[in-house]
Please model this.
Amino acid sequence: MERLDGLLVDGAYRPATGGGTFTTLNPATEDVLGAAADGTAADMDAAVDAARRAFDGTNWATNTAFRAHCLRQLSDAMTTHADELRELTTAEVGAPAFLLGGAQFEGPVADLRWVADLAESYDGWSTDLGEAKPMGVPTHRWIEREAAGVVGAITPWNFPHQLNLAKIGPALAAGCTVVLKPAPDTPWCASAVARLAAEETDLPPGVLNIVTSSDHALGAQLSADCRVDIVSFTGSTNTGRAVMRSGAENLTKVFLELGGKSAFLVLDDADIAGSCAMAAFTAAVHAGQGCAITTRLVVPRARYDEAVDAAASTMAMLGCGDPTDSGTVCGPVISARQRERIEGYLALALEEGGSFAVGGGRPADRDRGFFIEPTLITGLTNASRVAREEIFGPVLVVLPHDGDDDAVAIANDSPYGLSGAVHSADSDRAWAVARKVRTGTMSVNGGVWYGGDVPFGGYKQSGIGREMGVAGFEEYLETKAIAEAI
Ligand code: NAD
Model:
């Protein structure tokens, strides 16, 4: 796609104030893809102003049919340009091509239509509570749900379309207006949406604003702006804390989707080899850059070696590959900085007494691109930092358990609570474990919970609130009780 160096502010797809740009890279080749608009504090200020005016001064919030129409147009525009967007996404994110059929592209584009349908069919807009005589006054009562206002959306880079559209879609469907500040690592994915929204939809000026920038400070500016009603943030737990602190000043509602260190639990009656091969595959997908990826493999102590062999041989077979190749599972990580961070954790694993059953560094056969081999770490306990902290690379730690209760205890002995998996030959036993793990999503025997109608989010330090599904839509609504005397 051409012309991806623009911002969307107040209906205009335009350069940053002062014309500043920054480069975006292909992480698989380290080649410069091109220039992105380097939005400034003035651009962010103009975007929030436009979103505020569009919310307060138009009927956007109450014209549900028109909102649904605009969301379907955006979905259609992205579908029309799907070939270019797929190519761009693989180039900028380094995500393996096979993911484009799901969460990396097609899933979130289809979900725009799902949420448009939801806005039109939602039965919670107005609820008649009927008549009563509170304090002796004959009264008819209703509960109205209405748009919460201006949404400041801040996103990371690992699944840019999923992350951006899972905020834009439900927020616009609910009747809010939006200012999106995407990650500096993937500005073009966001700019493509900005351009299509400006050129191929009827979205009114100010309803959707997208400000790309190399400067993280624009995220802080957005989250501290008192004209914003909800800050919807996805990113690391540490940045989430900063966002919550900024929101505290204005008592802004914050909605946080944060990090994870999810456990893949293999019970002693499960197919150990098959389950551990699946765990290894999952940890290697997109070089482990998924907040919900299971990165602790918890296996029966008596079968630890068998589990390690199965997981290690799968990882060795997968290796790293060119993300444009349909057979690649593990592409590059997003940046040199991210690769260094992962390498720091690999060094720490050795310091903490662990060893690598496979992987442990950069692949020998690639001298360009930010690649890390799929890596399996053995010999650590759940108390180690490597088992507790989010690494965000293709790194899996194998831990032994002594029965179902111990497996659950290990899963829950984590500051995070985002996702998880359990494998057992006995469905009831697997469900009993799934119910005890304190996380927002659980997969049983390989089931996939991802989908537009499924709420996603975390317990504990993995976040506050839910994205997607009806619950994700309702995050962007306020509740008002109206009582009329009769
Ligand atoms: P990050 O927290 O560094 O950045 C996320 C976004 O916040 C970026 O747009 C960044 O510019 C912005 N930002 C940075 N400092 C800010 C501040 N002080 N105030 C406001 N905004 C600020 O995260 P990242 O490294 O880009 O992404 C990786 C992280 O995202 C991982 O921890 C991962 O688990 C998490 N993540 C979570 C989910 C989820 O749904 N739970 C999904 C994807 C990624």
User: Anything to note?
Assistant: The mean pLDDT is 98. The pocket of nicotinamide-adenine-dinucleotide is lined by residues 154-158, 163, 181, 183-184, 216, 219-220, 223, 234-236, 239, 242-243, 257-260, 291, 390, 392, 418, 458, 463 (CB under 6 Å). The CA atoms of residues 455 and 471 lie 6 Å apart.
